[in-house]
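Intended use. Records like the one below are meant for learning the mapping from a protein sequence to its folded structure. Do not use them to infer anything beyond what is encoded.
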Amino acid sequence: MSSVPFISVVTPTYNSERTLADTLESVASQMDDSIEHIVMDGGSTDGTLEILRKFPHVQWFSGRDEGHYHAMHKGVLASRGRFFNVLNSDDCFRPGVLKSVKAALQRHPNWDGLFGDVVFVDDVGREIYRREEACFDYNVLRFGLGYVIHPTFFLSKEMYLQVGGFDYHRLKNCADYDLVLKTGRFGAKVGHLPDLLVDYRFHANGQSADLRIQRNMLRESTGLMREHGKLAGLAGMAQAVLYKTKRQGQKLILRGKIDLIPGNFKLRKFMREKCEFSSNIGLDKLPE
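Structure written out for the chain above:
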């Protein structure tokens, strides 16, 4: 590409031959000179590299890393765009979203980033449910619920470096949530784009549907909330109720809707005690 890109899409991957082509195609179909796509591969031993060679627009690097957050971090550092996004190797952008995101960021030059809405889908791409949000609220995120899904999150590279990036040394499953919280604590201006940006896949070969991963995410996210001021015990439970209620009020006012059924309930039947995925930091070996 001759011009400097406006948005860099970073995709971490490791033995993702089952889903990677769909992810790459979802970006390729929206490419122009303002977009770059960087894939950081952790040294895959399946057909991942053969798939990457079929997409000449992709800048990809393959070699051992310290897990998916380390791959994300290296990809962000290598990126040239003013803003970046991390798209998992089993998720897909919905049609036209990169153009919409770029337009929104250009309309709001004071924004440090934005996030959008997400569709959770199953193994074959059938919709499970839609999560539609209202606004970025640091207090809701740290006391109530981490509702910003990172494939819908676009952040300026400058802000990423200011807040310290992904803490891949310490966190195995919640470094993305940690990044969102750090941007909120910093006072970053993060807008909300009320569009469905990403199909987020819950499937038998991914981490999101693995109950072992979910339990580790709960441990890490609980610790992060405490670091950001959430109280322990009954006081913390009261905070959670208060700010989850605030979130629903924001959605009612700004979107004209609320969540009658929790998302975790809708996803419950798609969860598995153990999914089949590869991890070069041992996440696939967590105890059941």
